[in-house]
Design a protein that fits this description.
The complex is a heterodimer of chains A (about 100) and B (about 200). By secondary structure, chain A is of the alpha+beta class. Helices cover about 50% and strands about 25% of the residues of chain A. Chain A has one domain: 2-Layer Sandwich (Alpha-Beta Plaits). Chain A has helices spanning about 1-20, 35-45, 75-85, 95-100; strands at about 25-30, 50-60, 65-70, 90-95. Chain A is elongated and about 60 Å long. Chain B has about 200 residues and is mainly beta. Chain B has a single domain (about 1-205), classed as Porin. Chain B is built from one helix and twelve strands, in the order αββββββββββββ. Chain B starts with a helix and ends with a strand. Classes of the chains: A alpha+beta (about 100), B mainly beta (about 200). The interface between A and B is medium-sized, with 27 and 32 residues.
């Protein structure tokens, strides 16, 4: 019984860790990102930033997903500048911690 | 040297795409159609303009142009489902054959697209003493994406292009064009109403 409990705790811990890893640190809702070519520019711009671990894009939702490295941060201003510099408009920047609240 | 330029023009082909890229992006564009083969390399310091060099080889003569090009994004309108742009393009350089003349061209282009529909229009006027006494060209396109691809997948557009060249014997040319792109690569292939091929290629870095 004790063993089963331990396995269950380990399983839940792993599931939580995997979920945190999959959940982006930032979700940036944008306007004007209608083609893959526009999104490639965003990927390259954010990819150059030291704080960024990974980036993904949903063309259908018009959202840029950004994963940050541990202990790193990007301010809303930095995010907005990177998007606007690519000719895309920012609608909102949502952070992981905003969602937890 | 001429052979190398010719090979580059064939391998690489100005595609019907946006003449300004993302900040610090390099773009290699090549266009092959009934009139010319054209190779264009440009850099976009910002999303508002690009500077580049163009080599253009004319099919039915020995004319070859070497130009510098400045492209400007004059207006961009973003919405949640669409983007619209207006650009200006200025080319200055030389047209060469038996003689060498100052060559200049001014173009305006506009486009509007959603993930499903695309439309564009461009008009240009070019002048080079002896070669070209202020020729006017215009072109329009409409397109539809048969499916909506995800980011990073292969995207396909089916387009219809209409060209108008008032000074030419064949004033109007129409062409179905297929555009395919994935990540930094874009290809276009088409066949116009005079049975001349269109082949365009873009690589962005």
């Amino acid at each position: 019984m004790k063993k089963m409990g331990l396995i269950l705790i380990l399983f839940i811990s792993f599931a939580n860790f995997a979920n945190a890893e999959n959940h982006p640190s930032l979700e940036v809702k944008v306007n004007g990102m209608v083609c893959d070519f526009c999104a490639q520019g965003l990927k390259k711009s954010f990819g150059k930033k030291e704080a960024v671990k990974k980036i993904d894009v949903s063309l259908e939702k018009g959202v840029v997903f950004i994963w940050l490295k541990d202990g790193q941060n990007l301010t809303d201003k930095e995010v907005e500048k990177a998007v606007i510099d690519n000719g895309i408009s920012v609608v909102s920047v949502q952070r992981e911690e905003d969602e937890k609240e | 040297m001429g052979y190398i330029i010719f090979l580059l023009l064939i391998l690489a082909s100005t595609a019907e795409a946006r003449p300004v890229s993302y900040p610090d992006g390099w773009t290699l564009m090549s266009r092959n159609n009934w009139e010319t083969s054209r190779l264009h390399l440009h850099n976009s310091p910002t999303v508002n303009y690009s500077l580049g060099a163009v080599v253009e080889d004319y099919r039915n003569s020995d004319r070859r142009d070497f130009n510098l090009q400045l492209n400007n994004l004059l207006l961009r309108q973003n919405t949640s489902t669409s983007q619209a742009n207006i650009y200006s393009m200025i080319e200055l350089g030389v047209a060469t054959d038996d003689s060498t003349e100052f060559n200049k061209a001014l173009s305006f282009a506009g486009d509007w697209e959603t993930r499903r529909y695309f439309t564009s229009y461009s008009a240009s006027i070019q002048h080079a003493e002896v070669f070209d006494n202020g020729s006017f060209h215009q072109k329009a396109r409409v397109g539809i994406a048969p499916y909506l691809g995800k980011f990073g997948s292969i995207h396909t557009w089916l387009m219809l292009q209409v060209e108008h060249h008032p000074e030419e014997d064949k004033e109007f040319r129409t062409a179905p064009v297929i555009r395919l792109f994935k990540n930094e690569f874009l290809f276009e292939i088409g066949l116009d109403s005079e049975k001349d091929f269109i082949f365009n290629f873009i690589y962005r870095h």
